[in-house]
Amino acid sequence: MRSKEHDEVKMMSIFRDDLVGRLLWAEPDAATRFRYTIWFDYTRRLLNDLHEGDLVVVPNFATNSEGLKYSILQIISVFPRHYALGSDIGDLKGFPGFVMQAAKSASADWTDQESEPFGDTTKVICECIPTNFETDHYGNIGAESAMAMVGKDVNVVNTDMTNRIFNMGIDTDVEDVIKGGVLIRDENINIHVRVEDLIKTHFGIFGFTGVGKSNLVSTMVSNLLKTNNPIKIVLFDLMDEYTGLLADQLFINDGRLICLGEKTLMKPIFDYVNYDYNLQYEKEAVEKFIDTLLLPKGLKKKEIIEKYKKLAPHLLKKVRIKEHDTEKVSNFIKSNKSLLFHSSMGIATRNEIKTVLKLFEPYETQELTPKLAKELMDQISNLLTTFKKSTAIDRVEGLNSELKEIANAEDKGINPHIQITTKDLLKELSDDSKSGLYIITSHDPDKIREYAHKLGTSIFENRRLKGRFTPTVCFVFDEADEFMPGSSFSPKDDSYKLSRTIIETLARRGRKFGLGLGIATQRSAYLDTKTIGQLHTYFISKLPRKNDRDVVASAFGISEDQLTQTFKFLKGHWLLVSHDATGIDMPIPIKTDNAEMRIKKFLNE
Length: 605
Known about the structure:
six-stranded antiparallel barrel, 20 strands
């Protein structure tokens, strides 16, 4: 039989012997099974060494004569307390003179106990939750078989063991992984994320203004495009803020800046790209491009802007203009029916609209050319003079505007070398010989939502019919609340319904065909909850509003207490939680790479 001393020597290799506490309380918890309270004797060094996210071990009730079994717990809050001042704020209601004197005496205890504790009134209180794993004296990790014992010593896990636990089961030599970030409390630990599970089971990025959301999106896209297997990233950029943050990836991966219509570009820029990059337009085009380029503060320095100016002519050669796709009349009607009808529409209004659809019946098998679009517009205009219902007139005018865009297509004089059709884009997205980045933007938010539906539906149906699932394509929606609002926030505009529909389809059925989904938003409370419940990986930072935190916690199935540590997060700090993509199904506080450093390096080179 092994001696107790032998077991203790073995355990020395998996935890830090300089940080020892005691488990004082355990209680049931609906979200995490148990909630534990641990006390450490206060020292200033210990308080700086303990962090939310740290792992600790404590003997559990599975311990027997064959050896110790240790439950692995995770710290979710760290707080120093001086009991001379009482145990809660109610104890400050005593005589002010006594309270102030006690506080003055307490302040000395905080500073004097640098590395050795000498007072019984100062403690570091830690709240912990189970990881649902346990270890033994050899450092073997398995499923937890019993709860932790109250009253036992608690030890903090060391770097090597922490790395093993957080990256448990991930084989970087075999699996395609990216670095999600480094552990906040120990930057020597890289947190690995499985690429396939991240994309195909979908991910979300939730953080308020200023936490580095766009920076993280840029870093994620960059890391995914560096993986061993080809990946296509389609980024719907509603605010046009990723051209600068992904400039390097547009070059490295022969990317595309896809503008939905020539109006998305300012005239000097359009003239430059449309007229074969004529040098007489270049100076003004570059100036306008730089003036409208959205960059974070760290990239707005004069010397960096000058490097962007030198890069701009080459970057503008990545621009493609998406204009009208030639399609059959029957497909045009099918894709625009949502513009014409809604569920609460009256019978009389519905009947008037149906008379318009009859105009299209003789042409259903024909291509909807600009010439035919003009003919149909004339017929519709004549018919509208007979309508009595204003709703029917408004709906048909919406259809007419779609026809007008097609009718004007032949007059725009857009150079063929900068045009791209949906068919062209689908072909590139099916090329499994290389990775690719496609940033889609528009001057009109409705158009980008509508095109998200069209492109997403086209690739989904194409792959479904052909039984194709490679290469992996990830659709990323920034400002996702503008693409998939919840039912209580949905505006009347039908474009929202279209984008929300395709996002829901991708979330529920995309995995089977190699189609993944990524969303990023400041306001998770505005999102369609059915869809965010389909996301298996979350990156969470500060969410000041409680309703935003409630939505995220409920969707992933974690307690709000586990999100409180995000209140202390600095820019670039995220709580990573995943059911599939990480080694452990627990919140992991990480620090992500700074995209600005990557961009600066690229510009310098």
